[in-house]
Amino acid sequence: MTYRYRVATVFLLGFFIDCINIFMPAVAMPRIAATFAIDNANSAWVGNAYILGLALVMPVSTWLAAQWGARQLLSASMLGFAVAAWGCGQADGFAGLIAGRLLQGMAGGLLIPVGQALTFNLFQGPERARVSTLVMAVALIAPALSPSLGGLMVDRGSWPWVFHANIPLALLAAGLAWLWIRDVPGTAQARPDFLGLLLISAALAALLLGMSLYGAGHGLAWALPCLALGALCALLYRRHYRRTNSAILELDLLDSARLKVSMWIYQAIPGIFTGVNLLNIFYLQDTLALSAQATGLFMLVYAAGAFAAMLMVGRAYNRAGARRLFLLGMLLHSLGIAMLVLVDSARDGHLLILAYALMGIGGGIGANTAQTTALLDFTGQQTQQASVLWNLNRQMAFSLGAALLLMVFNLLLDQLGSTLAYHLSFALAALLGLTPLARLHTLPQENPHHA
C-alpha cells in the first residue's frame, strides 16, 4: 500500500469511528435513561456532549498539529478516544457519562480535520473525487450498520458495550497513525483566536442547556438565564469579531446566499432528522415495545435511500440546479416524517419502512446538495474559513435538532398522552423541515463555471 493510501486509511478509520459514535449510542438511549433514572430530554446530552467536544477543538486542531506534529496528534487523539470510551462504559453516574462523551468528542475532533487535510493534500485533481466518494461511503455505511449492531449489543448484553466496542477500533487507528504517518515537522501558524473560540463554545453550550432544561420541565426560571447567557456570548463574539483581524469564525462569509441557505438546509434536514430519529427510538422501544435491534434496522432503509439519492444528486446537480434539488429533498424528507404520525402499533412496519425510505431519499438529496453548494462562492483562504463555518454548523445541527424536538415532546407530554405527544411532535417536525422554503428564492442562478 502506498503512503497516500495509508494516510487515507487512517483518516477514513477515524471518520468511521466518529460517525458510529453519533448514531450507535442513540439506540441505547432508553436503557441509559432507565439506568440513571433520567428523562429523555436529559438523555440527549449523551449526544450533545460529544458534538460540543467536536465543536470545541475542531477550529484549533490544525494549529495543534503544527505545534506537535500530525503523527503525534493523531495517535494521541485516538488513544484519548479509547480511554474516554472506557470511561463512558464504566460510568457509575450520568455526570461521569457526559464527561466521558465530552472527552470523546474532543479526541475525535482532533483527528478528523487534520486527517482530512493530510489526505486531500495527497490526492489532487480527479483523484480527489475518489477519496470524496470513499468519505461519502463511510458516512452512509456507519449510520446504516451502527444502530442495528448497537441494538444487538444492548439486547444481548448491556448498553456500555456501545462505547466499549469502539476501543479496539480506536487503538487500531492510533497504532496505524504511529506506524504509517511520517513524522514531518509542522509549519508555524499564527496563534488561534482562543477568546472567540471560548465565546462561541459558551454560546452553543448555553443554548443547548437552556432548551434541555425547559424541555425537561425545569421551567423558565432555569432555562431563561441559560438562553440569555447564550445570547450574550453571541453578541460579545460579534463585537469581538469586529475588533480582531483573525477571528475564529469569519461572519462576513455569511453574505454568501449559497452558504447561508445550505447551512439552513442542514439544520432543517439532517438536524431535524436526528431529533425525529431519537424520538422515534423512544417511541418504538418504550411505547410499542420493539427491541433495540429491530429499532436500529430501520436505519438500513434510511441509508439505502440516502445512497440512491447521493448517486442521483451527483448526476443531476448541474442540470437541475440547487434550488430544485433543495425543494425536492425537503418535500420528500418532510413527507417521510409525516408518515410516522400514522404509526400506532408494532404491526405498522410497512409504514416505518416507507417513512425511513422517504426520509433517507429526501435527506440524501438535501444534505448532498448542501454539501456541494455551500462552498461554491469561495476560493483560496476563504474556502478554509467558510469550511470552518460549514462544519461547525453541520455538527451543531445534530444537537440542536435533538434538543429542540425533545423539548417540544416533553412540553406536549405534560398536556397529552404519550402517543399523541409523539405524533404531534412528528407533525411539527415535518413542518419545521420545510422552513428553508422561504429562503430558496435568494439562491443565485447556477454559474456554468461551477460545473
Task: Walk me through what this model shows.
This protein is mostly helical and 451 residues long. It is built from 17 helices and no strands. The chain folds into 3 domains: 1-189, Growth Hormone, Chain: A, CATH 1.20.1250; 193-247; 255-451, Growth Hormone, Chain: A, CATH 1.20.1250. It has helices spanning 3-23, 29-36, 40-43, 45-68, 70-90, 94-122, 126-156, 161-164, 166-180, 194-215, 220-243, 257-287, 292-320, 322-339, 349-373, 381-413, 418-432.
Low-confidence stretches: none
Roughly what percent helix? over 70%
Looking at this structure, what is the CATH superfamily of the largest domain? MFS general substrate transporter like domains
CATH class of the largest domain, named Mainly Alpha
Write down the CATH topology of the largest domain.
Growth Hormone, Chain: A
First and last CA, distance: 33 Å
Mean pLDDT: 85
Q: Which CATH-level-2 architecture of the largest domain? A: Up-down Bundle
Largest sheet: none
The string of secondary-structure elements, in order, is HHHHHHHHHHHHHHHHH
What portion of the residues fall into strands of 2 or more residues?
under 5%
Number of strands: 0
- Could you tell me the radius of gyration in angstroms? 21 Å
Number of helices: 17
Principal-axes geometry comes out as globular
Number of domains: 3
